[in-house]
UniProtKB/TrEMBL annotation:
The keyword Amino-acid biosynthesis does not apply. Keywords: Methyltransferase, S-adenosyl-L-methionine, Transferase. This is O-methyltransferase. Residues 22-88 form the BVU-1015-like N-terminal dimerisation-like domain. Residues 176-342 form the O-methyltransferase C-terminal domain. It comes from Prevotella herbatica. The keyword Cell cycle does not apply. InterPro entries: BVU_1015-like_N (IPR049480), COMT-like (IPR016461), COMT_C (IPR001077), SAM-dependent_MTases_sf (IPR029063), WH-like_DNA-bd_sf (IPR036388), WH_DNA-bd_sf (IPR036390).
């Protein structure tokens, strides 16, 4: 298994003392409580208050507009969670380093909202999802076979948190990705799984000579049209509605595609489905076409917290999204790329929030 140097340090040896291990085990046992208490400390603005000044629990109750009982419960729990510290003499609380990250780290804030609004209730059915290979928890949000069919009609908070999560992780890498993709000045670009059109708009804004064709589900393309309507360069964005889960549906066949782009797309499919999609892509490529696959590969992360987040996000795909995909490691994807008839010419790591780009050509 390939592991980045940082991950080798963390995942190949047990460095916890017995007491540390015991505490982490209890932390896991009370994980749902830890999550909800910490979420409320954010929602009620308590951590933000404690970032700026020291306060007693009674003062917190008054400022947050909650009862003294509620304040004591969440403050004492947060103390043992580690998000706040207390002065044993004055009884005043202040924020800890962990609490500071909860308040100030954009990734953490996005992840909390995503887990509460999209995943929390559905994770109760994770066991069923893993055993049956279907998103058993999705029923908490709506009656679809996959979450992608229902993105446009998700409950409002779930929709807002889903797209904030998706855009946060993809948008951070766009600037670096554009330099890589447009180094060869492509004129035709197929964006497979173009979602709301954010990448396509980046492309037509970056180079006025490129035409982009977005391949996605019809309902996704409806949202995309709405998002790009009237914007400069939108006339160079074209659509190809299809459901790639159906192996009979091919990709648009042009006289030549300079670039085929797949960003945060293949993680939405099982390995069998990925292989089928890649083979269909190879059919419309020629010797001068380049396929760029951008994914957050968990085993190539520079920092360990990113690998932790990505492997947990895999279970969102299991319980909520489709029941059979995950955040893949590079070992899995490179094997599938090879089987599909592609060769990897280069890998660019550590783009944005931990993305990698596989640059592939037809064998």
């Amino acid at each position: 298994m390939h592991l980045s140097e940082e991950l080798k340090k963390r995942y190949t040896k047990d460095k916890h003392s017995v007491r540390e291990a015991q505490r982490i085990a209890e932390f896991i046992a009370f994980g749902p409580v830890v999550f909800q208490v910490s979420r409320l400390m954010l929602k009620w603005g308590i951590l933000e208050m404690l970032r700026d000044e020291e306060l007693t629990s009674d003062e917190v109750a008054e400022r947050a507009g909650i009862t003294k009982y509620a304040a004591k419960c969440v403050m004492e729990a947060s103390l043992t969670i580690g998000t706040v510290l207390v002065d044993s003499n004055s009884g005043k609380f202040t924020i800890s380093k962990i609490g500071w990250f909860l308040v100030n780290d954009p990734a953490t804030i996005v992840n909390i909202d995503f887990n509460h609004d999209v995943n929390y209730l559905g994770m109760f059915d994770l066991e069923t999802a893993l055993k049956e290979g279907r998103p058993a928890g999705l029923k908490q949000l709506g009656n679809w076979s996959t979450i992608y069919e229902g993105l446009s009609t998700l409950p409002e908070k779930a929709k807002s948190s889903w797209f904030a999560f998706d855009h946060f992780y993809s948008d951070s890498s766009f600037e670096e990705a554009l330099k890589i993709v447009f180094a060869s000045s492509p004129k035709t670009l197929m964006d497979v799984g173009g979602n709301t059109g954010r990448w396509a708009m980046q492309c037509v804004s970056y180079d006025e000579n490129v035409d982009v064709t977005i391949v996605d589900l019809p309902q996704q393309l409806d949202m995309m049209r709405e998002n790009v309507s009237g914007k400069n360069g939108a006339d160079r964005i074209h659509v190809y509605p299809t459901n790639l889960l159906d192996e009979n549906n091919g990709l648009p066949d042009s006289s030549h595609w300079d670039v085929i782009w797949m960003s945060q797309f293949l993680d939405c499919f099982s390995e069998k489905e990925i292989l089928s999609i890649l083979k269909r892509a190879v059919k419309v490529m020629d010797a001068d076409s380049t396929m760029y696959i951008m994914e957050t590969l968990w085993n190539r992360q520079k920092y360990e917290p990113a690998a932790f987040c990505l492997t947990q996000i895999s279970l969102y795909f299991t319980a909520m999204a489709n029941g059979n995909s995950k955040m893949y490691g590079s070992d899995e994807l490179t094997e599938l790329v090879d089987k599909a008839g592609l060769k990897i010419e280069a890998i660019h790591d550590n783009l944005g929030q931990g993305h990698s780009i596989l640059c592939c050509r037809k064998k």
